[in-house]
Amino acid sequence: xxxxxxxxxxxxxxxxxxxxxxxxxxxxxxxxxxxxxxxxxxxxxxxxxxxxxxxxxxxxxxxxxxxxxxxxxxxxxxxxxxxxxxxxxxxxxxxxxxxxxxxxxxxxxxxxxxxxxxxxxxxxxxxxxxxxxxxxxxxxxxxxxxxxxxxxxxxxxxxxxxxxxxxxxxxxxxxxxxxxxxxxxxxxxxxxxxxx
Length: 196
Known about the structure:
By secondary structure, the protein is of the alpha+beta class.
């Protein structure tokens, strides 16, 4: 069985720290950078919805189903988004990395690469996962390209998987990285980090 407990994960540029209600104002401000709630392929709340967003995440954490993080750029201790381990299947040593969003001005920077290295390293090297899943809206080309750059493999499309906040029905692209693939994925991430 996996033992999933709150933890802080850091590189020289980025920290993933346990999500807390104290982060609500900073998260709302980060989401306002690009008005991320307007994007049809994600489910980022409007600023006034962040307290409920964090409370829900913490309830899932208490139930052993999620481990949410605040994404923080170390320089200036700047909150730029959130991510989490979710759909935790402790008996089968599987987690999903999801509910990931990054403020618009920090997209396509070092943030996502560093965050994914931290989470995947924790999942495979500390938690002992045999598989890590990453899902995204099938129409989210930017997210799918980023997932594929990691070296994740497409497992398939979950058709009519979710009803999105605007009412449209989402098909979900499901990817995974398995334990045997982790060394190559890790090496690729480290190369990309060195080049940033």
